[in-house]
UniProtKB/TrEMBL annotation, chain A:
Keyword Kinase included in the entry's annotation: no
BP GO terms, sorted: electron transport coupled proton transport; oxidative phosphorylation; respiratory electron transport chain
Subcellular location: Cell membrane; Membrane
Enzyme class: translocase
Organism in which the protein naturally occurs: Vogesella indigofera (Pseudomonas indigofera)
One cellular component term from this protein's GO annotations in UniProt: respiratory chain complex IV
UniProt protein name: Cytochrome c oxidase subunit 1
Pathway: Energy metabolism; oxidative phosphorylation
Stored PANTHER family: CYTOCHROME C OXIDASE SUBUNIT 1
Keyword Acetylation set for record: no
TM segment ranges: 40-62, 82-102, 123-146, 166-190, 202-229, 249-273, 285-307, 319-336, 357-381, 393-415, 427-448, 468-488
Region of interest (Disordered), residue spans: 1-21
Domain Cytochrome oxidase subunit I profile intervals: 28-531
GO MF, one annotated term: heme binding
C-alpha cells in the first residue's frame, strides 16, 4: 500500500486542474498520456498494415499467372522481404504495444504507464524506422531482397538498402525493448490494491510474458544484424565461409530470436481472446490458472525449438530429433488453451457481436495453423515442406487469422471504451465474414501449392501451379478491399457512432468497464481499492479518481 | 480450372483427387513413399482432431446461445477434465513421434552408397561432378527468356527444364555431397523425397535410391538472390545399362572436347561461342542488350570497362568484383576458352566495336600461369 501511495503521489499532486488536455500537434509530439500514445501506436500500426498490404498485393499481382508480368525478380524479392519486415515489426508488434498502452493501466488500476516520457520516445522511434524502410526502395540497388530472415551470406551481397534495413531493425528493436520495460514495470509495480498477480486479467499476463520475451530476444536480433553489418563493411567474416566464418551460425542466432518472436505475436492474441470469449459467453474463463501456466510454458518452450526452422541445413539426426520432440511439445499447452476457450463457451449464454465473431474465427483458423504446424514439426515430413508455399500457408494462418484477427477483435471490443462511441455492428460483421471468406480463399490453396512442389519466394512458376495461384491472388485482392470497410467503419463511427454506455457488453467484468465511457483522459489518478476475482473480474471497487 | 478443382475437392476427398496437384507428387523412392504415407497419417489425425474439437465448439455455438434462451452455468474449472485434455494430446504426439523417428534415422543413414556425386550450387545454376568417373558439368535453366517475358509460348516443363540433367542409375544408392559457391541454395526434388541446403564452406550429404526410370523435376528451395526462381533441378534415372552407356558417351565426349589452350581463335568463332557463354552466365544481371539494370547491375554496352580497360575487364571476369559481391569470380567456373570468348563478345557486341580479340592464352597469362 505504501509503495503504491508514494508512486501515485506525484500524479495526485499535479492532477488538480492545472494539467489541461493538451491540444494541437504538441499533444501528439510530446505525448506522455498512455491513451494518446496507445492511439499513436494503433494509427501507426494501421498505416504500416496498409503499406505491408500493398506490398502483399504487388506480390499476388505478379503471381496471378505464370510469366513475368509486372516486376523484375529483384524487385519482387524486395517486395517479399519488406512485406514480411513491415508486417512483423511495423504492424503486428506495435499494434499489440498500442493496445497494451491503452488498456493495461485501465485494467489494473494504474494512473498511466510507469515511464511516461520513455513511452513517448519508444513510440516516436518507430516512424523514422519505417521511413528508413520506405526510402530504401529508392536507393541504388533497391530495398533489402534477402527475405525477412535476411539470411547471410545473401544479405552480405545486397546494396545499401540492406544497411538501411539493419538500422531500421536496430531502431525498432530499441523501441520495442523500451515499450516492454514499460509494460513490465507497470504491471509489477502499479497494480491497484487487491489486483494480485494471480487475479490479473489474461491480457495483462500475456503482455507481461510477451514483454519478457521481447527483452530476451530483440538484442539477439540486433546482434546478428550487426554482425551482418560488420561483415558487409568492416572486414569481419562471421558468416563468410571463405574467411573461416559459418553461414549456418546466422540461422541459429536469427531463429533463437525468430521463434520466440512467433510467440511475441501470438501470446497477446491469446490474452485478448481470453477476455472476449468469456465476455460474450457470459461465463468466467475456464481454467484461468492453467491458462497462466500454459502461456508461461509456451514462452519457455519457445526458446528450445528454434532449429525446427533449419531441418534442411543438414543437422545430425540427434539434433533433428531433439528439436522435433521439443516442437511437438508446444502443441500440448497450445491445445490446453484452445480447450479452455471451448470450455468457456460450453454451457455459456453466447451472443455474437463482431468481437466474438473475430475471436471464434481466431480460434478455428489459428488451430488450422497449429495443426499444420504439428505436421511441419515432424522433421521427416518437413524435408518436403520446408521453404514451400505450405509454410507460407501455415504462418499466415497463425499470423493473419491469428494475430490480425485478434487485433480486429480487440479494436472492436474496446472501441466504445476508447472513443465513447459504438462502431457499426452491421459493417463490423460484414468485415468479419468478408475477411473470413477471402482469407481462406487466399491461403488455403497455398497448402496444396506447397505439397505439389512450389517453393516460396519465387516470382514465376510452372503452369501446374496456375489455378491455385490465380485463386490466391483473387482472394488477396478481395481481402485487401475488405480492410477498407474496416477503416471506413472506424473513421465514421469515431465521429458519428451511437454514444456508448460505460459497459456496452453485458458480460464484461474487468476494471476498464467500471469507469466512464470514453475513458477519462487521466484515469485512476488515485488508486481504487479492489475486490478482484480470477481473470481480473471486479467484484467491488472503492475510491479511485479520474479527470 | 480452379473452379473444377474446388468442386472436386468439395464432392469427394478421394485419393484420386488428392493426387491431382493437391498433394505430394507420386514418390519414386522408398523414403519419399514413407514421407508420403507419414504425411497422410498426420493429415488424418490432425483432420480428425479438428473435426472433433470444433464439432464440440459448434455444438456449443448452436445450443448454448443467448438467442436460444440458454442460461450460462458458472463453472470455471475441472481438474479431471484438464488433466485428461493435457494427457491425450501428449499420447497422440508420442504416437506421431514414433514412426517419425524411425524415418528420420533412415533418411540420415547415407552409408554404403554405390555412387557419389558432388553437387555445387551457384547463382543461379547447379554443377554436378561424378567424383569417381571424371564427368562434370554445369546444369542451366533451359527455358528461354522470351518465354518468361511472355513473348514466346511456354512448354509443359516451363521453368522446370535444364540443358543437362543429372543422370543417375536406378536401383543404386546414390549419395550427393552438397556445397555452394556463393550463397546458400537448396537442392530439392520432391519425388525423390530429398531436400538439402547447399551451404558455402560446408559439405552436407543426402542419399536416394530411385526405383524406376524416369525424369524427376525440382527447384532450388532456398532464396538465393535474383534468379532463385530460375534454377531448376532435373534428375534423369536410367536403368543401370543405359546409365553406363550414357557415362561412357560423356567420358568420350569430354576427352574429344579437350581444347588446345594455345589455339588461336578467329574473332567470328570467339563471338559465336562468347554469345553462348554470355547467355548462360551473364545475361541474368547484365541483360541480353548489355544495358544491365541501373542501380543494381552495371551496363556493359558502352562502359569504360568493356570498351577501354582490357586488363581490368579480364581481371573482373576472372576474379570477381571487390565492390559488388554479386559479380562472381568466373575464373573458378569457366575454362580459359570460355572466358576469352565471353570477353571478346562483350567487347564487340551491341555498340561496343573495339575489334579486340582476347585469346585463351591471354587468360592463362592473366591467371599467372595457373589454370
Amino acid at each position: 500500500m505504501t509503495a503504491i501511495d508514494s508512486a501515485l503521489q506525484p500524479a495526485h499532486d499535479t492532477a488538480h486542474g492545472h494539467h489541461a488536455k493538451p491540444s494541437g500537434i504538441t499533444r501528439w509530439l510530446f505525448a506522455t498520456n498512455h491513451k494518446d500514445i496507445g492511439s499513436l501506436y494503433l494509427w501507426f500500426a494501421f498505416s504500416m498494415f496498409i503499406f505491408g498490404g500493398v506490398l502483399a498485393l504487388c506480390i499476388r499481382a505478379e503471381l496471378f499467372r505464370p510469366g513475368l508480368q509486372f516486376w523484375q525478380p529483384e524487385l519482387f524479392n524486395q517486395f517479399t522481404t519488406l512485406h514480411g519486415l513491415i508486417m512483423v515489426f511495423g504492424a503486428i508488434m506495435p499494434a499489440f504495444t498500442g493496445l497494451a498502452n491503452w488498456m493495461l493501466p485501465l485494467m489494473i488500476g494504474a494512473p498511466d504507464m510507469a515511464f511516461a516520457r520513455m513511452n513517448n520516445w519508444s513510440f516516436w522511434l518507430l516512424p523514422p524506422a519505417a521511413l528508413l524502410l520506405l526510402i530504401s526502395f529508392a536507393v541504388p540497388g533497391g530495398a533489402a531482397a534477402a527475405g525477412w530472415t535476411l539470411y547471410a551470406p545473401l544479405s552480405t551481397q545486397m546494396g545499401m538498402g540492406m544497411d538501411l534495413t539493419i538500422f531500421a531493425i536496430h531502431i525498432m528493436g530499441v523501441s520495442s525493448i523500451m515499450g516492454s520495460i514499460n509494460i513490465i514495470v507497470t504491471i509489477l509495480n502499479l497494480r491497484a490494491p487487491g489486483m494480485t498477480m494471480m487475479k490479473m486479467p489474461m491480457f495483462a499476463w500475456a503482455s507481461l510474458i510477451t514483454a519478457y520475451l521481447i527483452i530476451a530476444v530483440m538484442p539477439v536480433l540486433a546482434g546478428v544484424v550487426t554482425m551482418v553489418l560488420t561483415d558487409r563493411h568492416f572486414g569481419t567474416h562471421f558468416f563468410n565461409a571463405a574467411g573461416g566464418g559459418d553461414p549456418v551460425l546466422y540461422q541459429h542466432i536469427f531463429w533463437f530470436f525468430g521463434h520466440p518472436e512467433v510467440y511475441i505475436m501470438a501470446l497477446p492474441a491469446f490474452g485478448i481472446v481470453s477476455h472476449i470469449i468469456p465476455t460474450f459467453s457470459r461465463k468466467p474463463l475456464f481454467g484461468y490458472t492453467s491458462m497462466v501456466y500454459a502461456t508461461s510454458s509456451i514462452a519457455i518452450l519457445s526458446f528450445m525449438v528454434w532449429a525446427h526452422h533449419m531441418f534442411t541445413t543438414g543437422m545430425p539426426a540427434t539434433a533433428q530429433l531433439f528439436f522435433m520432440y521439443a516442437t511437438m511439445l508446444i502443441a500440448v499447452p497450445t491445445g490446453v488453451k484452445v480447450f479452455n476457450w471451448i470450455g468457456t463457451m460450453w454451457q455459456g449464454s453466447m451472443s455474437f457481436e463482431t468481437p466474438m465473431l473475430f475471436a471464434i474465427g481466431f480460434i478455428c483458423l489459428f488451430t488450422v495453423g497449429g495443426l499444420s504446424g504439428v505436421t511441419l514439426s515432424i522433421a521427416a515430413i518437413d524435408i518436403q515442406l520446408q521453404d514451400t508455399y505450405y509454410v507460407v500457408a501455415h504462418f499466415h494462418y497463425v499470423l493473419v487469422a491469428g494475430a490480425l484477427f485478434s487485433l480486429f477483435a480487440a479494436v472492436y471490443y474496446w472501441f466504445p471504451k476508447m472513443t465513447g462511441r459504438m462502431y457499426s455492428e452491421f459493417w463490423g460483421k460484414f468485415h468479419f465474414w468478408w475477411s473470413l471468406l477471402w482469407f481462406n480463399v487466399t491461403f488455403f490453396p497455398m497448402h496444396f501449392l506447397g505439397l505439389a512442389g512450389m517453393p516460396r519466394r519465387i516470382p514465376d512458376y510452372n503452369m501446374q501451379f496456375t489455378d491455385f495461384n490465380t485463386m490466391a491472388s483473387v482472394g488477396a485482392f478481395c481481402f485487401g478491399l475488405g480492410q477498407l470497410i474496416f477503416f471506413a467503419n472506424m473513421l465514421h463511427s469515431l465521429r458519428h457512432g451511437r454514444p456508448a454506455a460505460a459497459k456496452p457488453w453485458e458480460g464484461a467484468d474487468t476494471l476498464e468497464w467500471q469507469i466512464a465511457t470514453p475513458a477519462p483522459y487521466h484515469s485512476f489518478v488515485e488508486a481504487p481499492d479492489l475486490e478482484v476475482g480470477e481473470n481480473g473480474r471486479i467484484d467491488a471497487m472503492h475510491g479511485g479518481k479520474h479527470h | 480450372m480452379a473452379c473444377r478443382r474446388v468442386l472436386l475437392l468439395l464432392t469427394g476427398w478421394s485419393p484420386a483427387v488428392l493426387a491431382a496437384n493437391v498433394n505430394l507428387p507420386p514418390p519414386v523412392t522408398g523414403i519419399a513413399q514413407d514421407i508420403y504415407d507419414l504425411h497422410m497419417l498426420l493429415l488424418y489425425i490432425t483432420g480428425g482432431i479438428f473435426v472433433l474439437v470444433f464439432g464440440v465448439m459448434f455444438w456449443a455455438i448452436l445450443r448454448h446461445r443467448k438467442s436460444a434462451g440458454h442460461q450460462a452455468k458458472h463453472f470455471h474449472e475441472n481438474t479431471t477434465v484438464e488433466i485428461i485434455w493435457t494427457l491425450i494430446p501428449l499420447l497422440i504426439l508420442v504416437a506421431m513421434a514414433w514412426p517419425a523417428t524411425r524415418l528420420i534415422l533412415q533418411q540420415k543413414s547415407s552409408a554404403g552408397a554405390e555412387l557419389t556425386i558432388k553437387v555445387t550450387g551457384y547463382q543461379w545454376k547447379w554443377h554436378y561432378d561424378y567424383l569417381d568417373d571424371g564427368v562434370a558439368f554445369m546444369s542451366h535453366l533451359a527455358t528461354p527468356q522470351s518465354a518468361i517475358h511472355q513473348v514466346a509460348a511456354r512448354g509443359e516443363h516451363y521453368l522446370l527444364e535444364v540443358d543437362q540433367p543429372l543422370v543417375v542409375p536406378t536401383g543404386t544408392k546414390v549419395r550427393l555431397l552438397l556445397t555452394a559457391n556463393d550463397v546458400i541454395h537448396a537442392w530439392w526434388v520432391p519425388q525423390l523425397g530429398v531436400k538439402q541446403d547447399a551451404i558455402p564452406g560446408f559439405v552436407r550429404d543426402v542419399w536416394f535410391k530411385v526405383d524406376r526410370p524416369g525424369t524427376y523435376r525440382g527447384q532450388c528451395a532456398e532464396l538465393c538472390g535474383k534468379d532463385h526462381g530460375f534454377m531448376p533441378i532435373v534428375v534423369e534415372a536410367k536403368a543401370p545399362a543405359d546409365y553406363q552407356a550414357w557415362l561412357a558417351a560423356r567420358q568420350k565426349a569430354a576427352a574429344a572436347n579437350l581444347e588446345d589452350p594455345n589455339k588461336v581463335w578467329p574473332l567470328a568463332e570467339l563471338m559465336a561461342r562468347g554469345e553462348k557463354v554470355y547467355t548462360q552466365n551473364c545475361v541474368a544481371c547484365h541483360q541480353a542488350n548489355g544495358k544491365g539494370i541501373p542501380g543494381a547491375f552495371p551496363a556493359l554496352d558502352g562502359s569504360a570497362m568493356a570498351t577501354k580497360d582490357k586488363p581490368g575487364h579480364i581481371d573482373i571476369v576472372l576474379n570477381g568484383s571487390k565492390k559488388n559481391a554479386a559479380m562472381a569470380a568466373w575464373g573458378k567456373q569457366l575454362s580459359d576458352t570460355d572466358i576469352a570468348a565471353v570477353i571478346t563478345y562483350e567487347r564487340n557486341a551491341w555498340g561496343n566495336h573495339t575489334g579486340d580479340v582476347v585469346q585463351p592464352k591471354d587468360i592463362k597469362a592473366a591467371r599467372g600461369g595457373k589454370a
